[in-house]
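#onboarding

Welcome to the new folks! Below is a worked example of what a typical request in this channel looks like: someone posts a single protein sequence, and someone else replies with the predicted structure as tokens. Don't worry about understanding the tokens yet, we'll cover that in week two.

Example request:
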Amino acid sequence: MADISAYQYDSPKAVFDLIDHQFSLNETTLVDLTKAFLAEFKVGLDNYGKRMAMIPSFVTGVPDGTETG
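Example response:
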């Protein structure tokens, strides 16, 4: 990976803008990634014991102030 130093750019803001651009997604890409994630998630939950298996989990309660320990 090439060394990215602030002196290679006009200003520190240019460096931050470059970083921001690298982490920004357009709406279409974000929707596509979300759909792919949800599809993989569904595969894992639907196929217990398979390569993508996940154990369904959920919260059974919330703290109410009576907890000890």
